[in-house]
């Protein structure tokens, strides 16, 4: 979501005549799109602005600094003392005025009226094959470890016609991989009192378009909340080729007591039933998840339940995070009682299980033909890197032709714990 928001910030700055640089020391304006899921991210914002302000004093240059993204109101006040301006992402259209108020003259050809609505600002994509399309903002779930409902506010769905036309436009322009984004995508539309289509209906519309389009693309979405996952959604995914057979299904913990304190509103068995349905209706789908270790009060037994859940559900990929209390979230008031060393041990243990289950799946791919999207070159420039439809990391020996941003068919010749390798075939 932050990458997607940043792409819209880039567009606004582009329109003002700024150009992007990777080199902070040559920048005239520096900004952070902050994340609030973990305190660590906010600590990094403090360290970054400290460096920038030092740089400002040293260079004696009028560098502007801004902060946006997921920021608590109480943090906003503190950050206003160190950043030149702090704004909510929904107020991005006001950024030119803020910059102007700091004495920067806006370019003569800058049209303020083009910036009426956050969603209508065209993102500045980083490439021409991979795009994010936000479909909602905010969240109503109040997981006890998360501050998003307080920083981004309550769920607000974007109009379906606008989403569908953005997807169609991207496909027409040749984009190959499009990801619909939201904090809880499967409750899409529920804030509109029956005046908006549901998430499965939205996917159906895009799926129908994909069936008739002569362009090849894959549509992903993240993240669904297990409590709102429906059979209808899985049936829609199974019907349309362009809807990627990949499910990101955040479990967060495999222990009912911890799940309850996390306010996740499902039990392990309810989650397991949904996984069974995924396996039945989408037998080829890969399964990804998010999990937190060392949550407040997570006993050894509770942790072992998470480890067992990972063995049971055989994920292809698990984003494992050490719990860190986030100010603003409910659990911040609870004791952070699992020592860091123990959190690290638990994280490593889950990481080993993930390597095993991912390897088990990857071994079944050996010798198979698959379609992959090539997205970059490896560090040495010897291999193309990319992903299968199920987002398994893939590498292919580099050829003279530039195949980045293209789908190719490969035969899998080697498999590793977390990746596979193949050679191009017809
Ligand atoms: S579903 Fe839970 S973790 Fe995700 S954004 Fe909402 S409150 Fe945060």
Commentary on this structure:
With 426 residues, this protein is an alpha/beta fold. It has 3 domains: 2-114, no CATH class; 124-363, tm_1862 like domain (pyruvate-formate lyase- activating enzyme); 369-424, Beta Barrel (OB fold (Dihydrolipoamide Acetyltransferase, E2P)). Helices cover 35% and strands 20% of the residues. The chain is built from 12 helices and 16 strands. A 5-stranded mixed β-barrel has the order 12-13-14-16-15. Helix 6 packs parallel to helix 7 (199-212) and helix 8 (231-239) runs parallel beside helix 10. The protein is globular and about 60 Å long. The relative contact order is 0.09. The mean pLDDT is 93. The site of iron/sulfur cluster has 10 residues, from helix 5.
Kindly list the characteristics that best describe this protein.
3 domains, three-stranded parallel β-sheet, five-stranded mixed barrel, pyruvate-formate lyase- activating enzyme, OB fold (Dihydrolipoamide Acetyltransferase, E2P), 426 residues, alpha/beta, binds iron/sulfur cluster
Distinct helical segment count: 12
How many discrete structural domains?
3
If you compute it from the alpha carbons, what radius of gyration comes out, rounded to the nearest whole angstrom? 23 Å
CATH superfamily of the largest domain: tm_1862 like domain
Question: Based on the structure given, which CATH architecture of the largest domain is correct?
Answer: Alpha-Beta Horseshoe
Short description:
35% of the residues lie in helices and 20% in strands.
